[in-house]
Amino acid sequence: MIITTSKPFEEVLKELEGEEKVFIVGCGLCATTCETGGEEQVAEMKARLEAEGKTVTGAIIYDEVCHELNTKRKFRENKDAVEAADSFLVMCCGAGVQSVRESTERAVHPACNTVFLGNIQRHGHFMEKCSLCGECVLEDFGAICPVTRCHKGILNGPCGGTDEGKCETDKEKDCGWTLIYNQLEKMGKLDRFRKIYGLKNWQANMKPGRVIFEKKGEGGE
Ligand code: SF4
Ligand code: SF4
Asked: Residue 221 and residue 215: Cα distance in Å, rounded?
């Protein structure tokens, strides 16, 4: 899931300077799990903005704000409140904010910072284990990602700074390469340590990424 954190309220107020009427959008998926844009947070934001003298013309929460057609449909369903707004405050990831951008010509503001693609370890604990490199090498590393779990992202590790399983850059964090070694040892595949990896193809995650699935019979296989 996409991990977000809330921007400080003062920053949000600054974004909304000069705009009196605001429409709030929250997301029922990732931002709800992160507690940055679910029912409770949207209600709290509405109350705080109203206490600052703003008019909240509407507030909606729905799944997949990042789905642009769905967002356009939600805006049509809430036409009066949407049209009454000077601007939109979006309480979810940057993809959701830009989905709203596609639905209006008016000002669109982010209420969150988007930080990473994260695994949920337990309630409120998120960890980055994949950094979306575009060409996955997990197969060679016991399904533990050196690009993300090693703090230097090296493919031929460890770096020499590993200390009792912790990383030299941060003693609180596990050394990704110790994790990889232990996993390969369990699998009886330590011979993989002998392989020297060449340069990774970083062009595989050139921005902006775009994937279009072709349906069978329309040029696909
Ligand atoms: S190798 Fe790339 S795609 Fe695979 S887990 Fe790591 S960052 Fe993600
Ligand atoms: S100590 Fe381990 S995780 Fe840290 S940079 Fe070196 S190899 Fe990577």
From this structure: 8
**pTM recorded for the entire structure:** 0.92
Which residue, 196, 166, 192, is CA-closest to 181?
192
pLDDT, tens only, 70-127: 999 999 999 999 999 999 999 999 999 999 999 999 999 999 999 999 999 999 999 9
**Which residue puts its alpha carbon closest to atom 3 of ligand 1?**
136
Kindly report the number of other CB atoms within 10 A of residue 18's CB atom: 7
Does ligand 1 come within 6 angstroms of the Cβ of 148? yes
Ligand 2 atom at minimal distance to the Cα of residue 152: 5
Residues 6+ apart with CB under 8 A from 213: 220
CA of 201 to the centre of ligand 1 (A): 12
Query: Measured from the CB, is residue 93 less than 6 Å from ligand 1?
Result: no
Element (H, E) at 148: helix 146-149
Query: Candidates 3.10.450.700, 3.40.50.2300, 3.50.50.60, 3.40.190.10; correct CATH number of 2-115?
Result: 3.40.50.2300
C-alpha 181/C-alpha 142 separation (Å) is 9
Buried b (16+ CB within 10 A) or exposed e, 37-59: bbeebbeebbeebeeeebebbbb
What was the pLDDT predicted at 220? 42
